[in-house]
Amino acid sequence: MKPDGSALSLFISYSHRDDELREKLDTHLSLLKRQGVFDVWHDRRIAAGQEWAGQIDAELESADIVLLLISADFLASDYCYDREMLHALQRHDAGSARVVPVILRPCDWQTSPFARLQVLPRDGTPVRSHADIDVALTEVARALRTVAEAMHTSRSSPPQTIVSPSAAQSSGAEASPPAPPLDSPAEPAPAPSPAPATKQLLKIDAIKVFGIFSVGPFELSWPPPLGRRRFLTLAVVFTLVVAGTAWALIARPQIEKTRDFMRRGDYPNALSSIDSAPRWIAALPAAVAVGEQARFGAKLASGTLIRDETPALAALRERYPAAPDVLLFLGLKALYVDAAPEQALNLFTQATQADPTHAEAHFLAAGQHLTLAYAATLSGDAARARLHASKAQAMAEVVAKTPAGDLPRYANQAAELREIDGGWPQALKIYARLASGHPLSALQASFVSWRMSDAAVEQRQALEQLGAAIMALAQAAKESVAQTAWLFRVSASEEIHVGAEDRLCLMRWADAISKSLLASTPDSSVADRAAPDDTRASPIPCAGASHPDSMREIVCVQALTAQQALPPADPRRAALAKWIESPLRCGAELEPLPNLAPSASGGPTT
């Protein structure tokens, strides 16, 4: 029953399965009871021998505030739901009581009849879901104190009396206030409660993750049960974890795969690799940088002259000044446009320092050192020649340790470094190892075999490999290996580029001379000696060749170099002399390729 004084009666409606939490809440309301704010009643206060149903109904009917302790068990209880909660809501709507729901444990309450009311704790977070239950129950006690203060303020306000002037004049007596409407509450209505937090479902359609797989659709309760701040914090942490994982497992390997193509100078495949990546990877700054550089390199590989791409190269330099591939492109410009070989070497070297695994940068730097070594040999500066040859060899050794080291382009350079130091047997082994799959290596093996004394077996093997390469090249003129750049040195400072249309011409010259030299070898077989004397045959057919004179010039330099390398008594010197005189008709201005002077130990250094 309602006690004397100003204390408000507080009726607690709950499921007995939540008795433990009800007791904890009762403890938190102790100060409010001591201060006379509330007289708290629940069914545990029913004395022995009392009729419990009648007592509950009486206390519920006279309560100022009805506290609903919500849980799944409360919602499942017919007595709590139908008899106590619904009756309490009727009194709340009539203004004779105040209903306050408290969410004890997680349950589906958002569509219940009391969901329109402001619930406790804040944001509807269940008491059990708090890290510290005492914190949640303290919040409930403080909120109930605020409700009590609002109700006391409302009750202490004097009612306004409206007097009808005409009634006062006609009766001559004090006018009485008008009767309240029939549906008005017997007591003043409590202060309006804050608008309840509206619970909604946040619907999310399917989300495509990293452009690979989809998740969803799904729905989330909004505002989230965790609270907005905690939910957003967890969302940010989750996003960062997912982004880091995506970078490590998907994006970074894709970008590194592209860079590996660039490191070996294969810019067309590098561009294809980055263009085939999912859009979210292609939008990353690292992928954008790699893509722009790969696209520039692919243009050069397709035959675009670097002088025509100077503005685009300047833009790349502005955006990525320290990128190894940009330094490499700048070195090519210095070499072929500015005619500044020393500046080109400096830029290529910077590229190797920026990326020690960049095979193409090491290859180009080694090529410049090799050119300087040839030039120093011609000028008689043996020390300088050996210094540059040593640096070129160091660059080539770095390339050999990379995954691209076995590519013919790089292996052929390593073999050329053996040639300049007189290491023809080592060079021949490198060329022969690659000859079966690379026509250029087969051609180089043939040229080196001309210089070998007492090597009929090697010459015969080189000739067989050259013949197979000629057949393969003739049958597959568009084969990818045929598109690889062929460069042949004809002097210390001059190289000739052999296009696809000239390669068969060059290889047929080498084949004819190789057969003639093998027939002249002292230890050649009877079959070898039966080979026709090709010097008396018609000129090597070069139908379709674009630069037949340049091809003869390459062969002349190789023949002169072999003639100089062979011992004076070797009959192949005479055979080479015939070829040089006719049908090659080598000009007097052509000279053999120089070799490095012997080292202090008397042998080759490489």
Task: Explain briefly what this protein structure is.
This protein has 606 residues and is an alpha/beta fold. The protein is 54% helix and 8% strand. It has helices at 19-28, 30-34, 52-62, 72-76, 78-94, 133-156, 165-171, 228-263, 267-275, 279-282, 285-301, 310-319, 324-336, 341-354, 359-378, 382-400, 408-420, 424-434, 439-449, 456-475, 503-520, 526-529, 548-565, 571-581; strands spanning 8-13, 38-41, 65-70, 98-103, 200-204, 207-209, 213-215, 218-222, 486-489, 495-498.
What are the key terms here?
two-stranded antiparallel sheet, 606 residues, 8% strand, 54% helix, single chain, alpha/beta, rod-shaped, disordered N terminus
Give an overview of the whole structure:
The chain is α/β, with parallel strands linked by helices and 606 residues long. The protein is 54% helix and 8% strand. The protein has 24 helices and ten strands. The strands form four sheets. A four-stranded parallel β-sheet has the order 2-1-3-4, with helices on both faces. Strands 5-8 form a two-stranded antiparallel sheet. A two-stranded antiparallel sheet has the order 6-7.
Helical content (DSSP H or I, runs of 4+): 40-55%
Quaternary state of the chains: single chain
Number of strands: 10
What strand line-up does the widest sheet have? 2-1-3-4
Count of alpha/pi helices: 24
